[in-house]
Specification:
The complex is a heterodimer of chains A (263) and B (382).
Chain A lengths: L1 E5 L2 E3 L5 E3 L6 E3 L3 E3 L1 H16 L4 E8 L4 H10 L3 E6 L8 H12 L6 E5 L10 H9 L3 E12 L2 E8 L2 E8 L2 E5 L11 H9 L3 E3 L8 H4 L28 H14 L5
Helix pairs in contact in A: 2-5, 3-4
Chain B lengths: L6 H18 L3 H7 L4 H8 L19 H14 L1 H11 L1 H9 L2 H12 L5 E4 L15 E5 L2 E12 L6 E7 L9 E7 L5 E6 L10 E12 L11 H37 L1 E2 L2 E2 L4 H29 L5 H26 L10 H10 L7 H14 L2
Parallel strand pairs in B: 1-4
Antiparallel strand pairs in B: 2-3, 3-7, 4-5, 6-7, 8-9
Helix pairs in contact in B: 1-4, 4-5, 4-8, 5-6, 8-9, 8-10, 8-11, 9-10, 10-11, 10-12
Classes of the chains: A alpha/beta (263), B alpha+beta (382).
Chain lengths: 263, 382
């Protein structure tokens, strides 16, 4: 079985992120990881590979050169091949363009099965998987929680829907986005780490995928960021004064009336 | 000068950090509180293959360079020193002589299972009257038929009470002092080889440390680990630089764990209406901690670079060990001050860092002995 996994390198949840002075771009500390939901996608692909003999897993990302690190992590986990679709000079935030690029990479690859995370934890768009499937004209199921191979042409999946779960039978090739709970992503073995350190990562210029530059570069984006804003900071905790419990209650009532004006 | 890690080293570091965060950090407080060997965490962690870190790929190792080794030693200590002591013993001291001098059958029996975490190893130097002063070693090994007869008691042996095999330092000729010292392999189950007292420690809890007793233990000739008799002390010299740098790296690990805790706390804790990180006196502490750790890190990794490139690292390794462990003490002390009274409570982590940091003062040589060594080496060059 020929399996493809889309991954994305995102800022670590503990990375310091601040707004640049123009408020339209971000200053991100140099701490990046594979997207949380994509780890489930890689793990699910590995589980399929362990069941279906001679399966091969390809991982692919559209991103900056640094994203090679996320691809290496996938190889350390057990993926076989990795492709970086280098976005140097093409950087934009439009998921439609990213999806076109990923779909063009995929269309001649003969993939039976495509996995990706249900959303990236940086922009939270949750668009890529479904849009790629539409461009490829193949079925897709979002936020899957269970994946069973029936044979090399058919799978049964359970997906999360509003207020419950749905069980679906899907013909391959198809695309599935993975939800937390589907599996427990493995910790790479040292042998995997060594393989990943030595692996040669294929770097592709997206322009060579049959898409002209004017439809994938920054000017083609239908989305432009006007401003970013940080969440309002939490106000400092106020300790209510008073020697006794009664005094503290009185003081609290006074604050609720005078300061908070909720009474 | 190029201080940049290679892409491979960066990737290795990131993977180790993630692995330690996932497997070790969540267990660190429990390991300390129980003060028992953490078998479950040991199995989970060692199954990943890290125990073969410094050995060749042909025998299942990783052939990691010394910078990668330091990264590993630092990170596992950040996770849990209780686990790190046992793990690092299997990676370095406990298996070094077996790998270097062991016969094929010894390697099959001891080295390869130890690299997989299936067997636990240790190295026995210290006795009641000797540690840094190796010349005072009283354990003896005497030729007896086709083998050796070993007698003596070793103390402060990391992994000792749970080891499957050990490399024992013994004198084959007490009249020769340091030149009479040699190493021997003794395996669990050998008649006369037994555990003595377990030492209950202030820190590094979870590491099992204790006495090993060799009472008329007979081992075959092939258990002598060396190319020729009387060279044991030179072999010690070959490994000592790495052991000292490893101790420095572990100190950095504890310090960086403590620093992260201090930074986090200073962002959360509110006093007099604002986060304590806003106060200059707290910022001064964080700046001091960061500065000292950066200096210590430069020393430890410079030593690793010297070692990797086959250059003389003896003085730098001793200095890095001393400096990094002293920095570690300072950093954990500042953590306890930033944390306030809660640092004194067993429910919180600062007290663990505070206790663990003390232990690294002694391993790899006391600072008094190291300063004397550095001074002698320097003046010897005049």
């Amino acid at each position: 079985m020929n399996i493809l996994v889309f991954i994305k390198q995102v800022a670590d949840t503990e990375a310091r992120i601040s707004l640049k002075s123009d408020k339209r771009s971000l200053e991100i500390e140099n701490k990046y990881n594979m997207n949380f939901f994509d780890e489930f996608a890689v793990e699910e692909a590995l589980k399929v590979k362990s069941k279906i003999k001679d399966s091969q897993i390809t991982v692919c990302t559209y991103g900056a050169k640094k994203a090679v690190e996320a691809l290496r992590t996938a190889i350390a986990m057990g993926a076989d091949k990795a492709f970086l679709l280098d976005n140097t000079g093409l950087d934009n935030d439009d998921p439609l363009i990213t999806s076109k690029i990923l779909a063009n990479f995929t269309k001649n690859g003969g993939f039976d099965l495509i996995f990706c995370g249900r959303q990236a934890i940086d922009d939270e768009n949750a668009n890529i998987g479904t849009m790629v499937a539409e461009f490829l004209d193949i079925p897709h199921v979002s936020a899957i929680l269970k994946f069973d191979i029936i044979d090399e042409k058919k799978v049964v999946v359970e997906s999360e829907i509003e207020g419950g779960k749905a069980t679906l039978e899907v013909e391959l090739p198809a695309l599935f986005t993975t939800q937390k709970g589907i599996n427990e992503p493995r910790v790479p073995l040292i042998t995997g780490v060594m393989k990943a350190m030595k692996a040669s990562i294929n770097v592709i210029d997206p322009v060579t995928l049959g898409l002209s530059k004017d439809i994938i570069d920054t000017t083609a984006s239908k989305i432009s960021v006007l401003t970013y804003e940080t969440p309002a900071g939490r106000p400092a905790v106020k300790i209510v004064d008073g020697e006794t419990t009664g005094e503290k209650v009185k003081s609290l009532i006074n604050i609720l009336k005078e300061d908070a004006k909720v009474l | 000068m190029d201080f940049k890690l290679t892409e491979e080293q960066e990737f290795f570091k990131k993977t180790v950090v993630d692995t330690i965060d996932r497997i070790v950090v969540p267990k660190s407080q429990e390991i300390d509180e129980k003060d028992e060997f953490p078998w479950e965490t040991w199995k989970e962690f060692t199954s990943l293959g890290y125990l073969g870190l410094r050995y060749p790929e042909e025998i299942g190792g990783m052939n990691a360079d010394k910078v990668m080794c330091m990264t590993f030693y630092e990170e596992i200590a950040r996770g849990s020193v209780g686990l790190a002591q046992g793990v690092n013993m299997n990676i370095l001291m406990g298996t070094y002589f077996i790998h270097r001098f062991g016969s094929d059958s010894i390697k099959e029996r001891c080295l390869y299972p130890a690299m997989r975490g299936e067997k636990i190893s240790t190295m026995c130097f210290t006795e009641d009257q000797s540690g840094s002063d190796l010349g005072a070693t009283r354990t003896t090994a005497v030729r007896d038929g086709d083998g050796w007869r070993i007698n003596g008691t070793k103390m402060w042996i990391t992994n000792g009470p749970i080891c499957d095999f050990c490399t024992v330092l013994a004198t084959t000729d007490p009249s020769k002092g340091l030149k009479g010292l040699n190493f021997f392999l003794v395996e669990k189950g050998t008649p006369g080889f037994s555990n003595g007292q377990i030492i209950h420690k202030l820190g590094c809890r979870g590491t099992v440390t204790g006495e090993l007793v060799f009472d008329n233990v007979w081992v075959p000739y092939e258990n002598f680990l060396g190319a020729e008799l009387g060279k044991g002390v030179f072999y010690v010299g070959d490994i000592l630089g790495e052991v000292r740098l490893m101790t420095g790296a572990m100190a950095l690990g504890i310090a960086s764990g403590a620093y992260a805790e201090a930074l986090e706390f200073s962002k959360k804790r509110i006093a007099f209406g604002q986060h304590i990180g806003n106060y200059q006196l707290i910022r001064e502490k964080l700046a001091e901690m960061d500065m000292l750790m950066n200096a210590a890190r430069l020393m430890v990794y410079y030593g690793a670079w010297l070692l990797e490139n086959g250059m003389d690292s003896r003085i730098v390794a001793a200095e890095a060990k001393m400096f990094a462990t002293e920095v570690c003490l300072k950093v954990v002390d500042e953590l306890t001050r930033i944390y306030g009274a809660n640092a004194f409570a067993y429910e919180y982590t600062p007290q663990r860092y505070f206790r663990d940091a003390r232990f690294l003062l002694y391993g790899g040589g006391t600072h008094e002995v190291l300063k004397d060594f550095i001074g002698r080496t320097i003046t010897g060059k005049l």
